Amino acid sequence: MNPLLECNALSKRYGNVTALSDINLTLERGKIVGLLGPNGSGKTTLIKLINGLLVPSKGQLLINGTAPGTETKKVVSYLPDKTYLNNWMKVKDLLNFFEDFYYNFDKKRAYDMLEKLHINPNDSLKTMSKGTKEKVQLILVMSRNADLYVLDEPIGGVDPASRDYILDTIISNYNENSTVLISTHLIADVENVLDEVIFIQNGRINLQSSVDDIRMKEGKSVDAYFREVYKC
Amino acid sequence: MLGKLIKHELKATARYFLPLFLIAIVLTPITRFTLWIGNYPKILQFIPTVIVFVYVASLIMVASASILLIIYRFYKSMVTDEGYLMHTLPVSSESHILSKLAVASIWTVSSWLVIFISIFGMFFTPDRLSLLIDKLSYAWFYFNTTVNSSLMALLIIEIIFIVILGVFTAPLIYYASIAIGQVISKNKILGSIIGFFIIQVVSQIISVILMVPVGFYGDRVSDSANSMLSFFVNFFFPVTILLAVFTQIILFGITDYIFKKKLNLE
């Protein structure tokens, strides 16, 4: 079986600026992985490459052994750090949209989550706050039975009370064959759910390690260790 | 997947077009009735003026809406934040462009139909219709007696082709402009406008170059109707059609290549 995600000497340049340089990375199935790094470290570039929104300048990136394309988009569920939803649509229109295009979309699960978070499926998006829209987006993304979930800042705009529910949702919705990659600044909030962390800086990977190893070797939490590594 | 894309694109655009079409259609009998009443007292004479103005404005809206909305929809869903959703669907970029193009053509042709129906409804009387039929059958008879009939048939087929191709050309130019725009500039709207001018200049240069041989051929055409017609049917129109197909393939290819390799969502 091919690894879920594999990057070999992956580089991405925008003109003269190098965003990612010579990344070698393998992600296994059944993990929750934190992609951690300061602003401009290359997190979003890596995520866009995984989703086929960018093309590598050098090297390769494979998902289930295939370069990003129509096939990989079927099994990667992506939450961008943008509001990508049409304002004029109702929530239930969006569910239909996702059901139409993603064979692995579980509509019932989506309706359950909407109910839990008190979101009315008949509301149209233009009446919603930014945080509610983010919740809807996350529900859409997590209601797919994907192999790889890529979540770019999933809890940034959501109130702390909902964060716990959302993190619970993330943990309870992935299965042993799927992996969740979470990019975030809010390390303390997600630390407890992570199995593994990747530290990225200036387009290079500094560290890929299990959370337990960090706690054992360094004797501190990931959050504290992150602050130490990236101290300004 | 192409079918689903078309379905969703139709839904997303119908909410602009259907109300516009409805307004134009409903205003037609109202305007006609207002004019039919005729003698208005001085103080009420503004009524027909206003109604005719609104009616004409609605037709202009219908005529211009399709192109404006074609540009707006493509821009919004392909290169702004909505692009994150569209470009991560398990759908090829060819399907994206084809679905947009199909829906654009449907609305373009239906706007023509609405305008035609409305104008027809505005001016139709049995007398006028029979006069029109008379004139048309006279024209048809005139052509048939002076012009070679197989040339005539070819001419009609070629004109149909040119019209159909014409429906696709404008959207494809705008699509390529928008795709180029997001590559060449941070400001995507400005970039698209520059992209549009680049396409215009290049296509002007190419068509000027291609028109040179047409000019040479044209010089040898005599004044007789058949010779003129055969110049158009056997040479000018086929060249136009080939050129249109060629242009469309290039424009489609540019847009497709950029979406695959040079997408630049912020």
From TrEMBL, chain A:
GO MF annotations, alphabetized: ATP binding; ATP hydrolysis activity
Keyword Nucleotide-binding: yes
Keyword set, alphabetical order: ATP-binding, Nucleotide-binding, Transport
Keyword Nucleotide-binding: yes
Protein's recorded name: ABC-2 type transport system ATP-binding protein
